């Protein structure tokens, strides 16, 4: 009988100490919240998207300049019509070089991932149809008057980044 009473006491005593207190739970939740905040700050999704857009812009600027240079090489150094000493948007209303480049030197004119408007609706759609009534790549092109070098610039660069290639 005495053994049964001791067993009963131990069981009741153990059940009181088996759970967590409210303070312990709040401390753990607080630590998890701080770790989550630190992780979100370190990852910063908006910055990651901006960096991805800038990477695409760098690639597009190089692709455009390579296509123009290939066209010039095939045409004895003559630059495509529309490229002047004044910086112009590569667009239907600006430096319309689509017919000179697509599809011979580049499959489609790339457009800025956030501001460019190609043949499909929405930003970032490439220009494949040069007869399209309107398009705007979101990039500019200019030829330096003294050095005759071409510069393609991404005007919509994010994170105070300057994206420009000269050759």
Task: Explain the layout of strands and helices.
Elements: H1 2-17, H2 22-43, H3 45-74, E1 88-91, H4 98-101, E2 136-143, E3 150-154, E4 163-166
Fold and architecture overview:
The chain has four helices and four strands; from the N terminus they run αααβαβββ. By secondary structure, the chain is of the alpha+beta class. The chain folds into two domains: 42 residues; 122 residues, no CATH class. It has a four-stranded antiparallel β-sheet with strand order 1-2-3-4, covered by helices on one side. The mean pLDDT is 88.
Structural class: alpha+beta
Q: Give the fraction of residues assigned to helices.
A: 40-55%
Strand content: 5-15%
| Count of individual domains | 2
N-end to C-end Cα span: 98 Å
- Count of helical regions: 4
What can be said about the biggest beta sheet? 4 strands, antiparallel
H/E order of the elements?
Answer: HHHEHEEE
Average pLDDT, all residues: 88
* Sequence of strands across the biggest β-sheet: 1-2-3-4
State the total count of DSSP E strands. Answer: 4
Task: Work out the radius of gyration.
Answer: 31 Å
Overall, the morphology is: elongated
Low-confidence stretches: none
Features:
4 strands; alpha+beta; 2 domains; 43% helix; 4 helices; 167 residues
Question: TL;DR?
Answer:
The chain has 4 helices and 4 strands. It is an alpha+beta fold and 167 residues long. The protein has a 4-stranded antiparallel sheet, with helices on one face.
């Amino acid at each position: 009988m005495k053994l049964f009473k001791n067993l009963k006491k131990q069981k009741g005593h153990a059940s009181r100490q088996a759970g967590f207190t409210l303070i312990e739970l709040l401390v753990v939740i607080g630590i998890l919240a701080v770790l989550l905040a630190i992780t979100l700050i370190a990852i910063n999704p908006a910055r990651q998207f901006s960096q991805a857009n800038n990477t695409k812009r760098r690639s597009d600027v190089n692709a455009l300049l390579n296509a123009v240079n290939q066209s010039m090489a095939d045409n004895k150094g003559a630059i495509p019509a529309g490229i002047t000493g004044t910086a112009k948007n590569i667009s239907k209303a600006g430096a319309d070089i689509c017919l000179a480049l697509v599809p011979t030197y580049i499959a489609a004119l790339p457009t800025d991932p956030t501001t460019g408007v190609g043949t499909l609706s929405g930003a970032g759609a490439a220009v494949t149809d040069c007869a399209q009534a309107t398009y705007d790549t979101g990039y500019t092109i200019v030829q330096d008057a003294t050095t005759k070098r071409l510069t393609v610039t991404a005007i919509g660069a994010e994170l105070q980044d300057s994206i420009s290639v000269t050759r």
